[in-house]
């Protein structure tokens, strides 16, 4: 185990040469010198480390060089040997060619899921009847969101089996209300809100705005729903979408993901008012996506409040339910006038 940890450290080390003292920093404090020295000698004998002659020795009971060359090709070869073993095992179902051109880190990230895909195919084969992505996702990893929202589809593409899995394109129907006064004038505005409570607070206000629809996003489901929105609201012309969600890492990631499908604007007035409210605590377990975080901030117009957004890094957040119906009315009127 200790030898494996040292090898992992050597793989990640950025320089060609490494001092003995640098290796020692990553060892357990209670490890006896003789045990550690024998591990280093094994790494030398196996060709992972090569002595830098000019550095000399440490002159301890087991004499070790003070500095080494890291034999990167030898270390990396262990990764390729493992890949070849798995490639042979999986060859009846898919190939691992993509991973031979990627870093070991990428392989280790996907390895568990690839094993689950193999287990599924070994038992079931490639589906003869179409399955929705949610059904297939649950069958493979017991998580219906994995394929669409957690990187699973990218793995299927990497393995070149997405088409063979017979995934049925079946987007979620959008849940929305139509403004009774909207006109078919070729320019339409749509407000998407993340949570149900806020949707119902705004519903009574819709007919007093120039927005054509109010869309209930239902968290991540909006990504699927928005893809076929034009079929449910089949009016040609200019469509401007605005999004208002929780100010937390998930809400920010949803906003970024929607924009990978179509252009959606931040409903800035709502966000500005929400950030003026008292922050809440309790979302420490959410994972930050730096790219989505930067994208959100680049779309945020109020520079004076951007520092408030950085409080997310401390576990704070702002639920959109923090705005009363009075404030929601004021902010929608402001957004409508912009």
Can you give a write-up of this model?
By secondary structure, this protein is α/β, with parallel strands linked by helices. It has 3 domains: 2-70; 74-168, no CATH class; 175-337, no CATH class. It has helices at residues 2-12, 20-24, 33-45, 72-90, 97-100, 104-124, 133-141, 146-149, 152-158, 196-203, 222-225, 229-232, 249-258, 268-275, 290-299, 306-309, 325-337; strands at residues 17-19, 49-51, 67-70, 131-132, 167-168, 175-178, 187-193, 213-216, 238-244, 264-266, 280-281, 316-317. The strands form 4 sheets. The chain has a 5-stranded mixed β-sheet. A 3-stranded antiparallel β-sheet has the order 1-3-2. Helix 13 links the parallel strand 9 (238-244) and strand 10 (264-266). Residues 169-261 form the Wadjet protein JetD C-terminal domain. InterPro entries: JetD_C. This is DUF2220 family protein.
Coarse structural class: alpha/beta
Q: From N to C, what is the helix and strand string?
A: HEHHEEHHHEHHHEEEHEHHEHEHEHHEH
**Discrete helix count:** 17
Provide the helix percentage. Answer: 40-55%
Beta fraction: 5-15%
Q: How far apart lie the N and C ends?
A: 62 Å
CA radius of gyration:
28 Å
Q: What is the general shape?
A: elongated
Major beta sheet, strand line-up: 6-8-7-9-10
Q: How many discrete structural domains?
A: 3
Question: Would you count the extended β strands for me?
Answer: 12
Round the mean pLDDT to the nearest integer and report it. 89
- Unreliable parts: none
How would you characterize the largest beta sheet? 5 strands, mixed
